[in-house]
Amino acid sequence: MLFDESTLRKLNQLTLVASQLRSGVLKGERRSTKRGSSIEFADYRNYIPGDDLRRLDWNVYARLDQPFIKLLEEEEDLAVHALIDASQSMQWGEAENDKWRYVLQLTAALGAIALAAGDHFTVGILKRGGGLSQYGPARGQAHLTRLLHFLEQQQPHGVTDLDQSAREYLLQPRRAGLAFLLSDLFDPNGFESALSRLQGRGYEVVILHVLSPDEIEPPLTGDLRLVDVESGQAQEVSLDGGLRALYRRRLQAWQKAIRTHCHKRGARYLPLVTSTPWDKVVLYGMRQAGIVR
What we know:
Helix content is 33%, strand content 22%. By secondary structure, it is an alpha/beta fold. The chain has two domains: 188 residues, von Willebrand factor, type A domain (Rossmann fold); 32 residues, no CATH class.
């Protein structure tokens, strides 16, 4: 279990926020607290696996030979996608600071929020050339246990290629919605193409940029041989105070450039350090950022 019952109750009180309308979501505000108590018909949307067949309009299906779900007034749903960078660099950090464990906990929390709210939730494990590993789309709290089991079975490996991974994820027909990209963004080709690809398909993107404390402030000194955990390439360095200061400046400039690009593209960016408890990030940080309410 990635979190306890007390935390789960807190998560169930939250709702994910999409700032733009998506296909299948009613015009107006996202969801009322009545959760579709009105019986007034409002709209249709395409059926996706996992929908309640009792909501299928069989008359329309008989005429058009296509399945459509009926939406009622005050009843809205959202397609939520959690795209997890599963490259080898994500398995870094000691104990509670391990980035992989951290993103799994964040994903589980996003899933708990989405499933409790009646949204459709899909997880995509992004592995370059490793085939698509996916959970969902699922809807309803009954899926939470299976989601947690799926997450705990996943392991990172290989090198980062966010654009190729995003392309593979989008090969399957999917309902666009709110997409969370959880990654350390250690991709030599950058994240920009992956972001453009997702947005070009109608996704609203939130980037959760996860780093460990020793990636923010390396606890190293002296003459070192650093080896890239993904490519195996080595680099000889002499780490002193001057090089540390240069590293910090370049790290800050990198994060600033990411934030600037996301702002220009209308994506949301949240830099995270694994030393900050994940539940604090969700319950407070994401709320302040307008990602949940």
